Amino acid sequence: MPKIVVLPHDDLCPEGAVFEANSGETVLDVALKNGIGIEHACEKSCACTTCHVIVREGFDSLEESEELEDDMLDKAWGLEPESRLGCQAVVADEDLVVEIPRYTLNHASEDH
Q: Start and end of every 2Fe-2S ferredoxin-type domain (predicted)?
């Protein structure tokens, strides 16, 4: 069973974490069911960038992103070559190491 290693994140996962994942689950779903509150403002419909993650290891095991995801990622803060939307990154049979960027773009939920 593949594992997802979440690197430490100041707010969402200060000490990092390791979770088992089923092939076919998205990175976002695995994180959410394990208590990591990654934002997903569009309810996993690939219409925002709030679930942006960077896949530090295992990126090549993921299916290629589709054009809609690429268009959304172009708007993501801190975009890197290994960036994916957590709602679209489907776990295959390899372990993944994932970093949650410090900032996401969700103007509707920003604290003022």
A: 2-104
